[in-house]
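SEVERITY: medium
COMPONENT: batch folding queue
REPORTER: lab tech (J.R.)

DESCRIPTION
The queue accepted two submissions in a row. Attaching both inputs and their returned structure tokens so the on-call engineer can compare them side by side.

ATTACHMENT 1
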Amino acid sequence: MEKDKKKVIGHIPSGLFIVTSKDLTSHKVRGFLASWVQQASFDPPLISLCLKPERPGGSDIIDKEEPFALNVVSEDNDEFVNDFCRKGVDRTKILENMPHIDLGEWGIALKEAKSTIICKPRNVIKPGDHHIVIAEVTGGMFLNEQSHSMVHLRNDGSNY
């Protein structure tokens, strides 16, 4: 059982999301790919988002409790998901070149996404190498309602 524990953790399905936020000083849009997201409450509507503290853009959500947009990736979004997976790419440039809707302080809604969920952090829990952000859902919009959310399964529960 011990030797299989990391492998079986990878069997837990998750969605894929592009989190966008805006630097409140420079107004530049930041973004990163996230897969550890879950609804956490009905009333008020809350989500949980697990972030590595040093993730560019993620650290501001954790430390400064900056608002963000959670773009739900659809099965049709393989191309831009692959762009976000590459190491060393300038994700700000990728986002600037994608069709989007400016959401002010929350970042951007990606027009290719299934939907966008507007979130305001309320609490951060620091249990391990990832921090859990509990965020209130303050709004949302449908972009491609008929598309299907992308589901992600990992080969191993010890890495992405």
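ATTACHMENT 2
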Amino acid sequence: MFIAEKGIEGIARELVDLNAGEQRSAAFTARNPLARVPVLELDDGRFLAESRAICTYLEGLYPEPNLMGRSVEERAFIEMADRQVELYLLATIANCVRHTHPGLAALEQPQFREFGASQGEKLLGIARVFDTRLASQPWMAGDRFTIADITAFCGIEFAKLMKFKPGDAGLQHLQAWRDRVAERPSARF
């Protein structure tokens, strides 16, 4: 989604079948020994892993449209919002789905269903925090669309696997924000 927002072309996608364990192959772990996606191969043959690191690299190469902040202050507040979304909203959703969804059992061994269920129970409280934030500002980090919105949108979309929809939970600001993001061309990735 970040690449699409930037309008970057020429980055070839290579699909990795996680359920088949392709990320654990010798060829893949030579790129990322932690056997996790995504990984970006640089022109010099090095491999850059982790979504945020890849986005930082691409932001440096393609500074417009800016998604991570222009001034030191703006970068800090966007990063704060992005980290809050990632560590609290997205991680809670991911832990719930990874530990409760039968389709992800191959990835999460062992699955801890009680832990996953507890994460699902925590989600509403965490989502309320972001709903309150969006009552006073249009985007996760303030007045403009940023990487924090991309991270949050991916989390909310992932939450569909747990049948979570903000509007159904009375979180109207979060639902309206989600619907605005879903209208962006980059959301159709």
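NOTES FROM REPORTER
The domain at 2-61 is CATH 3.40.30.10 (Glutaredoxin).
No errors were logged for either attachment.
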